[in-house]
Write a structure and sequence with these properties.
CATH superfamily: Aldolase class I
Largest sheet: 10 strands, parallel
Shape: globular
Structural class: alpha/beta
CATH topology: TIM Barrel
Number of strands: 10
Radius of gyration: 19 Å
Number of helices: 13
CATH architecture: Alpha-Beta Barrel
Strand content: 5-15%
CATH class: Alpha Beta
Distance between the termini: 41 Å
Number of domains: 1
Oligomer: single chain
């Protein structure tokens, strides 16, 4: 085992926070030391989360142009102007959302998230539709109900929790330092406040990032540590898949190894949490997708994303079976 991997393991075993310089040096590794590093990340994953793979699926329950100007999003006001799209679709009905949840369950997902565009869901009627859908999903479908609804108030989150919502998803997107270059219509602090409100309401937290938006490697280290401070239960690591019309449409793709090293870093910094390889993995990991589950990740997003296509769910189920991994089951 390389001296770097030994040093990292000793620090983790002794509960010492990994220094930035050590984490940054991971990006410089090549050859067998990389595989040793992945092996350590895998060891930590199996120690704390076992050999189970979490499969989450989503439904875009409300689509259309958002008033936010997030540089990566195809539904942002900037992308909307360039594409001359102004339509904001209605929120799906309860029956439509529940139907999507049933399909997700049949595809092998154990978690299902209701995702909406826009700054937030504050309309009473829309909140009640989502709450009703959550009740049906929890009672009839047998899949963990989750939601990603933007910047939400504590009282609305508590209402959804009391209706059966288990997990609330809200990404910090990037590091606090880099965030102003990605979005100007709300702040990093706004994201943090929403996450804290969801935690205060008694919800489990899913909060992650997007890698590859022009941030530095040091920003990525900061992301992993800022997520740790929030004590998120699930940490989705997305990789930018540039969308036409967005400010980042011409951004260069990441290399597969850079993605895998980043996943390993998130596992090393957050050893006991669920690390999920999600959006953009097909575009960026390419033929190395199986290695995501050998480099620290213990979850995948199953099926399509909001605006881009994902993999055939059968391929991801086959992938995990071939790796000898178990599928996480529905749990209250």
């Amino acid at each position: 085992m390389s001296s770097l991997t030994v040093r990292i393991k000793n620090l983790i075993d002794n509960g010492v926070e990994l220094p930035d310089d050590i984490l940054l040096s991971i990006y410089e590794l090549s050859g067998s030391p990389v595989l040793e590093l992945f092996s350590l990340a895998l060891e930590l994953k199996e120690k704390y989360t076992g050999k189970r793979v979490n499969f989450c699926s989503i439904v875009s329950a409300k689509t259309g142009i958002c008033s936010e100007d997030c540089a990566f999003c195809g539904q942002s006001i900037i992308a909307g102007k360039e594409e001359k799209k102004t339509k904001i679709n209605r929120l799906l009905s309860v029956s439509e959302i529940v139907k999507a949840a049933k399909i997700a369950k049949n595809n092998g997902a154990n978690e299902f998230s209701i995702v909406t565009s826009g700054t937030s869901i504050n309309d009473k009627n829309e909140l009640e539709i989502i709450a009703d859908a959550v009740k049906h999903i929890k009672e009839e479908v047998g899949i963990v109900p989750c939601a990603s609804l933007g910047l939400m108030k504590y009282e609305h989150l508590l209402f959804l929790k009391n209706c059966g919502l288990a997990i609330f998803h809200h990404n910090i997107e990037t590091s606090s330092n880099y965030f102003p270059k990605i979005c100007s219509t709300h702040s990093f602090a706004d994201n943090v406040e929403t996450v804290k409100s969801a935690k205060r309401a008694g919800l489990k937290i899913c909060s992650g990032v997007i890698i590859g938006m022009g941030e530095s490697k040091h920003d990525r280290i900061n992301m992993a540590k800022e997520i740790k401070e929030l004590d998120a239960d699930n940490i989705p690591v997305n990789f930018l898949n540039p969308i036409k019309g967005t400010l980042l449409e011409n951004t260069d793709a990441l290399t597969p190894m850079e993605c895998l090293k980043t996943l390993a870093i998130f596992r090393l910094v957050n050893p006991k949490k669920n690390i999920l390889a999600q959006g953009g993995r097909e575009h960026n990991l390419r033929q190395l997708q199986p290695l995501a589950l050998m480099a620290g990740a213990n979850g995948l997003l199953l099926g399509n994303y909001l605006l881009t296509s994902g993999r055939n769910p059968e391929l991801d189920i086959e992938l995990t079976n071939d790796l000898g991994l178990e599928h996480a089951e529905y749990a209250e």
